[in-house]
Write a structure and sequence with these properties.
CATH superfamily of the domain at 58-161: Tetratricopeptide repeat domain
Radius of gyration: 35 Å
Mean pLDDT: 84
Number of helices: 9
Number of strands: 0
Strand content: under 5%
CATH topology of the domain at 58-161: Serine Threonine Protein Phosphatase 5, Tetratricopeptide repeat
Order of helices and strands: HHHHHHHHH
Helix content: 55-70%
Low-confidence stretches: none
Largest sheet: none
CATH class of the domain at 58-161: Mainly Alpha
CATH architecture of the domain at 58-161: Alpha Horseshoe
């Protein structure tokens, strides 16, 4: 019985070609599958935590904004309620400088935020946007509101723009 099983195994092996060289396509598929499995295992391993990056101080952001015209610094300082930085960020958007594209709508919004925070030049810049219809429909009424607020914040040029009622 054992002899018969051994003979059958030899015949089967000969018929299947196990004595021949391995099929290169089959070997490539096996390697690809093994590589994918290794990647999957690696992807599921927990990664060591990266140390948190220190958050720049408000003074550092304001300084980079004012001296370098750095868009991200101006945006960060504006978020920390340095309203002059909001105005400067608006100027960067108007000119497409500091790493930001030209975007008049964003510029107007930064000027308006600056004005809301009490920075007169921001009010004046917002007034000009409304007066000339840059990124918004022209609105002399809104322009006058912003010119008035800028004038109240001691921006002389804005006072000259006020129309008598």
């Amino acid at each position: 019985m054992r002899l018969l099983a051994l003979a059958a195994a030899i015949l089967l092996a000969a018929a299947c070609g196990t004595d021949s060289k391995p099929d290169p396509e089959l070997e490539a598929l096996k390697k690809k599958k093994d590589d994918e499995e290794k990647l999957r295992v690696e992807a599921t391993k927990p990664k060591p935590a990266e140390p948190a990056k220190p958050v720049p101080a408000k003074e550092e952001l304001v300084g980079k904004c004012k001296t370098d015209g750095d868009g991200p610094a101006c945006q960060g300082a504006c978020a920390l309620e340095d309203f002059e930085s909001c105005h400067l960020m608006g100027l960067l958007y108007e000119e497409g400088k500091g790493g930001v594209p030209v975007d008049f709508e964003a510029a107007r919004k930064f000027h308006e935020r600056s004005c809301d925070g009490g920075f007169g030049q921001g009010c004046y810049a917002a007034a000009v946007f409304w007066d000339y219809g840059k990124s918004v429909s022209k609105s002399p009424r809104k322009a006058q509101q912003y010119f008035k607020k800028a004038c109240e914040l001691k921006v002389d040029a804005a006072c000259k723009e006020l129309k008598p009622r």
